[in-house]
Amino acid sequence: MGISARLTVSRDVVAIDALVKKVSNVDPNSTLLLGSALLNLSALDEKDNLVGYLCLDDVPCARLGHAGGPAEVWTQEAAGPRFKLGSTAFVRVCTTDPLYEIEAASALLRAAFLLIPSLQTLLMTAGGELSFTEPGLASVFSRVASSKEAGGAVLYEAPREAVVPPLTIRPARVEDHDDMLPILQRCERAFPALAKLPESSRPEEPFALTRVVAGQDDRNRVLVAEAEGRLVGFIVMTSDVDTGNLAETFDLHPYDNFLPPEVYEQQYEEARGAVRERKLTALRAEAARRRQEEEEEREVEAAEAEGGEGEGEQAAATLPSPSAAAAAAAAAAARGSGDGARASVEGEAAGGEQGEGGEEGDAAGAAEPLQISPEEAAMLAEAEPTDEETRGEMLALFAGTPLEVEPTLFAVTMLCMDPAFEAQAHEFLGSAFAAFHDKLYCVVTLPHDSHEPALMETMTRIAPLPGSLFPEVLFMFHRHALLPDFCVRLGSPEDLEQVATLVSGMPNAPDICASFTGAAAAGTAAVALCQGEVVGLCTVNPEVDLELLQANFALASHVDLAYQPRPQHGEIDMYTMNPIFVHRHRPFLAAAMRLLGKTALYYALPPGQQPPDMQEVLAQVAPRHRTAFDKQLQAEFALYAFTRAGAFKRRRSVNAQIVIAGASECGLAVLERLLLDTELQFNYLTLLAPGGIKVGGMVCQYTAGVIARLGLEARVLLLDAEMTGLEREPRVVHLSDNSALSYNQLVITAGLQDQSRYRFADADPEVAGLLVTELELAADFSMNDALVMNDIVVYGGGLGAYHALSVLEAKSAIEKTRFLAPPGQAAAAPLVGVLSHMALELGLALPLPEPLELASLAIVKPVGPELHATAVVVDPAEPGAAPQEAPCDLVVGCEPPSVSRALFACLNDASLVFDGRLVVDSAFRTNDPHIYAGGTIAKLSRRYGGAHLEHYNSRDVGTKLAASLVACFTASAEKASESGDAATAAAAALPPPPAQLTGLHRARAVGCSLPGGHHFMFAGCPAALAAPGVAPPPGGSELVTTTDRGQTRLTLDDGGVVHALMYLGRVPVSAQRMGCLVGLHSSYLNQVVRRHAAGEVRDLLAFLTEPWAELLYNESFGGLREVLLETGLASVSMGDKAGGDGGLVQWVTSVQDTLLEFARAHASELPGYNVPSAART
């Protein structure tokens, strides 16, 4: 029978409670255990039925069903000597279906030890003997103590070796070939990069593996692992490693560039001295030049003051030219600096005082210490090299230089394991370091598109240097990470000396020591120790502003505040761990939580701050896009959480290089979905954002606050560059800064943009500084700009033009502004037609553009730092008329957006199918399966309907696109082990696109501010955006209210579903918030149709923003609605079996309970909703 174990999830709770009640006749309250225990595991049969449950805790406790006052007290006394936090755990619950007891118990216990590598012993207090009732547990647990006074309680112990027998590691022999070959063949499919035979073994010929084994020597070793009497894996290693190539590609300085420490220090100091000399030479030359200029000025002034005009001329004639004097001084300074700082100091201290006699000067110089002038001291301080400068100089000095010493590493070139024992691959490391007894590091490289084997979980991923095109990921493991006796305890003031040693060299070392001192005194610090030495520390702030966190983040997805009260939450204030022990982050934080009485720890990461080194084990909390209006509750940081429930949940690493070209809302949504994925961790994300990430506008879904809460800088490489070239075969993107990027998946989300800047800049690049978009205007235009600029042109007839005019009006620059648009452009914009219609009904006069074309711009002679241009304006209606010339200080481009010519040329040269838009299938893939596209730049192929994606909500499209990427990586992981060969696996990794694009529920909202303090908003479904208008769709209806606050229009389709919502008036509305109503049936809107017909709704906007509607605007309402619909369909489908009511009563009861539970879980977000004391009425 195939019994498997996995981490317990919330949907298991009902089945767990039922199983425990059935077997032990006690209530486990598994919901509480899920959030407070060390580890929760579920055992499942082949049909995914729950057949076992294991709960471990890291405080002394008796097993459920045997707990009681005497048993608990005795357990603490009896287990005290055996308990060590971090390596020991107690069994709180272990329940299995009697039919699967042996298999389920074995699977649960094995999974527990493999998930927590630091776990060495399990303890369990139970009543009586296990032999007859639970043979699965009895086979691994041994009786170590008992007590009649404690009700016959017995303390059992299970060491790791009894549950997970260690592998037997030995050197490979030639006769192992036949046992090694099947394992190799399996790994060629699952992990081809680590199953590739070296070229020296002639892999195309038979018995290549035998030649690898036979070729062992001092520099090449092969080890095999045996278990259960058979060979289950092997590893191939070599010490012939090109460290120079690695040093040019990765940041290896924390690891001494894999050189002996004394050699690294010598190179470091040599490079440091070279940088210092170079900087000092330049500083002295500059100082000499300044002194010479000052001396010349003084002499000229003195000459002018002493004599008449003739004397002044004579004095000036005798002086060398300033440039010649400066050159001579610089040359003299360069000659004088040959011996470095010391020679210069000696010269300045003694040179001026020693006369021709010299002897007294020599004696004085020998007797007195050297005096350094303030100027020289300042130069010495300024010339001190930074760490980055020194490392760059080391690369320049020693790159490509043959090493005269042996590097301190060996590399794993092959690793092949039986799948049943893959989790034990780390056991090779001890024997591997024994085989290379003089090496400190073990390294592994994997291609970016390779899956990570289990061994990588114990290793450190090394960051590549910026701009690196190295095609592989580098992992490292240090010999000392094998040291035993890792434990965790509360920090004390006596640890300060070791803490100072641990953080020495860090720029904020004094702050860390000060924080630790205060936390240790307050009892809120924990330290990790290995063989008695402090290797890690964590300080925690016990006070957490939960209201702030709940208002800005989806905290309910990680914690349940009903079971985790405020005292159980803490904020990580300071954290550091010796890089050698980074694989111990999880057990350290889990133990620290237990010591400090916490079930959830949070880490707040403000923009610009370096992410913590344990970030990979933290779960990012999703930011809210619609937050409280109270400015005091606006968080400007990203939030990460480490909880008891998720402490040992590992997301599968994805090292594929994913490049997102374009920081549009669709591109940001792709990143958000990938960053927040609960199963996969994407390690190499790059965003091309030319000009930075631009946010703003009343319809913006990614405000500055949301960007800050996403924490893009922590996990995404942000580049201020755009794509200028694309090579599909090597998968390389060329950028506008002349650099290049490798990619495994390219996502094009550049979007449609106003092209005025590019069109005019192509003719005259100098005018680029005068051209801005309406978003750039809103973000950067200041009152000072309004004062210094006299002639501003808003060019274009779209909604953006009206928004630009409102910005200029707010900055008192509207009188200096000229509004131009090509004839007919404004009329051709459908949404401008909707705006004009509503404005006409309200009696609101909109500014109309002059029907003129802006033919060209030319820079006039600059006056000061500001640019000024002459604009040439023509009237297409009068072809023979002379062009007008007008001064221009700024042009705001608001033309209909389109694809940039540069991007189109790039895509066209790469032979990507382009039909007005980039053509994609329903999985957002172009004709190249490694290139995706979404947002306004893309359209579906005709096979999938041909719809333009610009009519859909960009955030919805980006989320769906990212889900397609996630499905690709998920499918590739599953198919790699199932397919017959690597090529088949690669093909099967791409799931077929769905028959049609579904799941896009959010409305797309557009709008703008208008001059005069008015606001316009239009939110609609894709059909409404494709043909916008004020009239309802055929067969539909509309609700309209007009008040002194403005006009609101709600259109419904023939099924009563909200088709579009429009508003024009003086109230600033949230377009994204109001757009939540689009797609809902009118029955959700509090009987709005009936009430409007009865005259009860006089102002639709006011009615739709009353407290009753808050639930509809909640970000989680869409998920709640789906649950209710699924529940209703399931209940009604079972109606015939349920009785005469057709399942309606059951459905109503279920809906009621679901709504009450939702209101309870989101109470802080729904302050206007009261949860009744009774669950049912």
Biggest β-sheet: count, sense, barrel? 7 strands, mixed
Uncertain spans: 311-367, 979-988
Categorize the overall geometry. Answer: globular
- Say how many strands there are: 46
Strand content bin: 15-25%
What is the mean pLDDT? 86
- For the biggest β-sheet, the strand order reads 1-2-3-4-5-7-6
The tally of helices reads 41
As a percent range, the share of helical residues equals: 25-40%
Helix-strand makeup class: alpha/beta
Task: Give the end-to-end Cα distance, rounded to a whole number of Å.
Answer: 46 Å
Rg on CA atoms, Å = 36 Å
Describe the structure.
It is a single chain. With 1177 residues, this protein is of the alpha/beta class. The protein has 41 helices and 46 strands. The strands form ten sheets. Strands 1-2-3-4-5-7-6 form a seven-stranded mixed β-sheet. Strand 2 and strand 3 (50-57) form a beta hairpin. Helix 32 (954-976) runs antiparallel to helix 33 (982-988) and helix 39 (1117-1133) runs antiparallel to helix 41 (1144-1161). It starts with a strand and ends in a 16-residue tail after the last helix. The model is unreliable at 311-367 and 979-988 (pLDDT under 50).
Labels describing this entry:
single chain; 1177 residues; alpha/beta; seven-stranded mixed β-sheet; cell projection; CFAP61_N; Cilia- and flagella-associated protein 61; FAD/NAD-bd_sf
Give a brief description:
Residues 6-258, 408-561 form the Cilia- and flagella-associated protein 61 N-terminal domain. The protein is α/β, with parallel strands linked by helices.
SSE inventory with pairings:
Elements (H helix, E strand, L loop, with lengths): L3 E4 L5 H12 L5 H7 L2 E6 L5 E8 L11 H11 L8 E9 L4 H15 L5 E7 L7 H4 L3 E6 L5 E7 H4 L4 E4 L5 H14 L17 H7 L5 E8 L2 E9 L4 H7 L11 H46 L2 H10 L3 H15 L3 H11 L8 H9 L6 H9 L4 H12 L10 E9 L10 H8 L5 E7 L12 E3 L9 E7 L7 E5 L5 H8 L5 H14 L2 E6 L2 E9 L4 H7 L16 E9 L7 H12 L3 E6 L13 E2 L17 E6 L8 E3 L3 E4 L3 H11 L4 E3 L2 E4 L15 H7 L1 H4 E4 L3 E5 L4 E4 L4 E3 L2 E4 L7 H8 L7 E3 H7 L2 H6 L3 E4 L3 H12 L6 E5 L3 H4 L1 H13 L7 E2 L1 E7 L9 E6 L9 E5 L1 E4 L7 H9 L8 E3 L10 E3 L4 E3 L13 H23 L5 H7 L15 E7 L3 E7 L1 H5 L10 E7 L2 E7 L5 E8 ...
Parallel strand pairs: 4-5, 11-12, 18-19, 22-24, 23-25, 23-30, 25-26, 30-40, 31-38, 32-33, 32-38, 33-34, 39-41
Antiparallel strand pairs: 1-2, 2-3, 3-4, 5-7, 6-7, 8-9, 9-10, 10-11, 12-14, 13-14, 15-16, 16-17, 17-18, 19-21, 20-21, 27-28, 28-29, 35-36, 36-37, 42-43, 43-46, 44-45, 45-46
